[in-house]
């Protein structure tokens, strides 16, 4: 994270004695990235965070992937996915994946198990509903339009509030954060960045939960394991540092516009290993007298483009069948652009009311079985009208 936070009780000096009211020592835990060479936080537990009483292989389902063959654009209707009883971890529908990132969708109506993703950071986007993300650092509440970033190996659970919640899930094989070009050498957001520290939310107080023999599911590079901890991992009385879960609303993203059409990098919100995440929000559009506000036809030779349509009217796709909750995939090797008639309709338009999340990957995305089950197979031919 780009800035330091301190929550709860911490000692004046790090790596020094910090005693409980009964005189015993709190257990200090350093959670850090890149082998003590990058962002980290220090957490202070009531009990040793290392004490487990059992470990066993957990038979989590392994999603089957298939290449995008024949190569063509795809349209997925996430609202047609099974909305049966499910949680936001084990109930995710895997949609697309490569060796860098996995993209899924969840319709959660119950709390998830305690979970730790030891492979990489996770990014959740809340399409609809409200939820609480309970973590060792405290609780984050999120609602429609919120992104939530959960750093690698943070124990957490996702709890829907006031009914089911719909989530786009992005699981990285590494870390997700603001683009480096938005940050100073010391990690402060720069003046040209479309959001800043004031827009970010972190846990504000410790979440203290008692319990013994507590199960935590761990996804790691070799598979899944079920650990049983001697004490509940949510026993942290305080922490400080620059590594923690945080939330950011897409509605706080300030769009960058120009006299002529601006390319997708102006919408970039996050970067991960071999992929980027962009936010398309309501905005005034190009103001050159001869401007064409919708995107030009383009062929991203190095990336696949996934777009999740989450609100408003996406003018460039009108007439293609795209609707709330749709996902489009425009792969490398295919030239795509506005639907027929979109260019003419956009002339003279002053503003677009659209909301979408885009993920561009620099390796091809495979398709998973749930995606093929809700595919609109007519989409590839909608430009030929």
TrEMBL record:
Keyword annotations: Dioxygenase, Iron, Metal-binding, Oxidoreductase
GO cellular component annotations of the record: cytoplasm
Q: Does the keyword Metal-binding apply?
A: yes
GO MF entry, a single one? metal ion binding
Q: Which metal ions or organic cofactors does this protein require, according to UniProt? A: Fe cation
Query: Does the entry feature the keyword Oxidoreductase, yes or no?
Result: yes
Active site (record annotation): 261 (proton acceptor)
Per UniProt, homogentisate binds at 314, 336
Q: Which residues form the Homogentisate 1,2-dioxygenase N-terminal domain?
A: 114-248
The record's listing under PANTHER family reads: HOMOGENTISATE 1,2-DIOXYGENASE
Q: What is this protein called?
A: Homogentisate 1,2-dioxygenase
* Organism from which the protein derives: Paractinoplanes brasiliensis
């Amino acid at each position: 994270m780009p800035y330091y936070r301190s929550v709860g009780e911490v000692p004046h000096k790090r790596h020094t004695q910090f005693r409980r009211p009964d005189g015993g020592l709190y257990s200090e835990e350093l959670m850090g990235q890149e082998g003590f060479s990058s962002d980290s936080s220090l957490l202070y537990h009531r009990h040793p965070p290392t004490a487990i009483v059992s470990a066993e292989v957990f038979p989590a389902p392994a999603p089957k992937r298939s290449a995008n063959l024949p190569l063509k654009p795809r349209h997925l209707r996430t609202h047609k996915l099974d909305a049966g009883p499910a949680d936001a971890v084990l109930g995710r529908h895997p949609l697309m994946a490569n060796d860098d990132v996995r993209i899924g969708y969840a319709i959660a109506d119950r709390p998830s198990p305690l979970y730790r993703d030891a492979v990489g950071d996770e990014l959740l986007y809340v399409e609809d509903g409200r939820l609480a993300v309970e973590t060792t650092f405290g609780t984050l509440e999120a609602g429609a339009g919120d992104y939530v970033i959960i750093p690698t190996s943070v124990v957490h659970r996702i709890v829907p509030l006031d009914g089911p919640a719909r989530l786009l899930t992005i699981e990285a094989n590494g870390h997700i954060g603001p683009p480096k070009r938005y940050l100073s050498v010391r990690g402060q957001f720069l003046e040209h960045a479309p959001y800043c520290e004031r827009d970010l939310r972190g846990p504000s107080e410790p979440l203290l939960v008692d319990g013994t023999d507590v199960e935590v599911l761990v996804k790691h590079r070799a598979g899944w394991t079920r650990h049983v901890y001697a004490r509940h991992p949510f026993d942290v009385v305080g922490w400080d540092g620059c590594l923690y879960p945080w939330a950011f609303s897409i509605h706080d993203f300030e769009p960058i516009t120009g006299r002529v059409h601006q390319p997708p990098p102006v919408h970039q919100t996050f970067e991960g290993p071999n992929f980027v995440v962009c936010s398309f929000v309501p905005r005034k559009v190009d103001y050159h007298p001869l401007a064409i506000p919708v995107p030009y036809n383009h062929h991203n030779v190095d990336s696949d483009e996934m777009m999740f349509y989450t609100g408003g009217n996406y003018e460039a796709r009108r007439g293609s069948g795209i609707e709330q909750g749709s996902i489009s995939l425009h792969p490398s090797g295919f030239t795509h652009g506005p639907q027929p008639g979109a260019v003419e309709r956009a002339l003279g338009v002053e503003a677009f009311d659209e909301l979408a999340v885009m993920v561009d990957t620099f390796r091809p995305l495979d398709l998973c079985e749930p995606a093929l089950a809700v595919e609109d197979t007519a989409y590839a031919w909608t430009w030929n009208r």
